[in-house]
Amino acid sequence: MDQKVCFVVMGFGEKTDHELGKTFDLDATFEAIIKPAVEDAGLKCVRADEILHSGIIDAEMYMMLYQADLVIADISTGNVNAVYELGVRHALKPSSTIIMKEQDGRFSFDLDHTSTFQYEHLGKDIGSREAKRACCALKDLILAAIDDQQKVDSPVYTYLPALKYPMLTEMEFQEKVEELEEESDRLHLFLESGKKALNDSEFSSAITFYKEAAEMTRQDPTVIQKLVLATYKSEIPTKEEALENALNIAQSLTPYQSNDPETCGLTGAIHKRLWQIHRNTDDLELAIKQYGRGFEIRRDYYNGENYAACLDMLADHRNDSNEIIYNRMRAYKVRLIIIESLEKVAADGEELAERSDRKWILASLSNCYLAVGNDKEANTYEKRFLAEKLADWEQETFIEGKANAQEAFAKFQRQSRETN
Predict the structure, then answer these.
(1) Considering just the CA atoms, what is the radius of gyration of the chain in Å?
(2) CA-closest candidate to residue 14, choices 96, 101, 111, 125
(3) Sheet-wide strand order for 116-119
């Protein structure tokens, strides 16, 4: 007997729920919850990944949505692809469909009457305790759905009980399942290889892998963001040209209109570095705009820390004493907001331990404390940051931020004395 197939429709990579102002790593959802639950239940797990093939994607997608023994649709962040595919599945099959989402996200349309499995993210990622709980609970739902094929879960067939669903032959279903598995594995390899190369500071290799992934995903924004990061950090052929190349790649993300904190942060970083090369005020103003936008959208600490640093740079570049004071005070207050926000996370040791961005929370707390003159707390968090497993570029980034923080507080003190 052929192994039953579960088709998973969801986004991939990090996606932002703009209404919540939160970013979720959907790959973590798949790897930590969905895939192990499906496989433990004895089914073959095939993921849509929003892309599949560059050819007759519609035919393949519709075939999978119809033929699969089970469909799991994760509609977190209001993913339009997943929501559309869920609707197709509901129209084609009366049963064996599971809807899931991150618990804080709202439905983009009326599904309140439909049973939905919920799970929780900690930051972008999922903690090990929540992953274990959700995986076990989802496995139970899968087994129940497979065992009771007569239970109707489609609202279409619930409200139209006399409707007859279509009957098709197996066609090339098994062959397509194998093809899609290969494509999904290939994409996963490119993304994981790119991530490893980036962490190892092998930026040229990261660029190669992310270019391949971008082509497969039809220039998915998440992949383009990684490509932009690898490009500007490569400093190839020169630092300036790498920045210009990265900025050109980022244009497909419409960065100056974007509400995505990651896009804002990346373009802010590029303009900040261009400012450091050319001292063109336009670049500094754009860096402030982009970092500030990313910070205001969801109080993102990465954007916030850089926003404050750029405000300090702007103060250094001004002659008017009132404007200098204004910008330094803005920077100081941004850092206080970051400290207050991150201390709430750091206070929960178990949550902090499970956060995938733990090292950057520690780094930001250290540098923000340093910039407001609290050396004791700054040193405490610096030691905790340095105890983490760090890539060379991560340590260099921290050292650069530390130097900027020390300089910022010295200038803030001097400006305060002069004012008084």
Answers:
(1) 24
(2) 125
(3) 44-47, 5-9, 70-74, 97-102, 116-119
The Cα–Cα gap between 268 and 416 comes to 28
Rounded average pLDDT over 365-381: 96
User: Which pLDDT band holds residue 107 (cuts at 50, 70, 90)?
Assistant: low
Contacts of residues 16-20 at CB distance under 8 Å and 24 or more positions apart, as own/partner, are 16/77, 16/259, 16/260, 16/261, 16/262, 17/76, 17/77, 17/78, 17/102, 17/104, 17/105, 18/259, 18/260, 18/297, 19/78, 19/105, 19/106, 20/104, 20/105, 20/106, 20/298
Residue 71, phi then psi, degrees to nearest 5: -120, 130
Second CATH level (architecture) for the domain 5-171? 3-Layer(aba) Sandwich (3.40)
Reported as half-sphere exposure (CB side, CA atoms, 13 A), residue 265 has a value of: 19
Residue 37 has pLDDT above 50, yes or no: yes
Give the distance from CA 82 to its chain's centroid.
17
Q: Is the pLDDT of residue 329 over 90?
A: yes
- Boundaries of every domain in the chain: 5-171, 174-253, 265-419
Beta bridge partners of 97: 71
What does DSSP assign to residue 80? H
Range among 3-7, 34-38, 195-199 rated most confident: 34-38
User: What's the predicted TM-score (pTM) here?
Assistant: 0.75
Residue 30 clears pLDDT 90, i.e. is over it: yes
| H and E: helices and strands count for the chain | 18, 7
pLDDT at residue 112 in the model: 52
Tokens (6 digits) for 26: 């959907």
Six token digits for residue 258: 């974007």
Q: Please give the pLDDT value at position 139.
A: 96
pLDDT in tens, 134-159: 999 999 999 999 998 888 889 888 88
DSSP designation for 125: B
Alpha-carbon distance of 65 to 85, in angstroms, equals 7
Tokens representing 249 are 């790649």
Give the pairing type, strands 70-74 and 97-102.
parallel
Q: Say if CB 46 and CB 180 are below 8 A apart.
A: yes
The two three-digit tokens of residue 223, written as one number: 């992949």
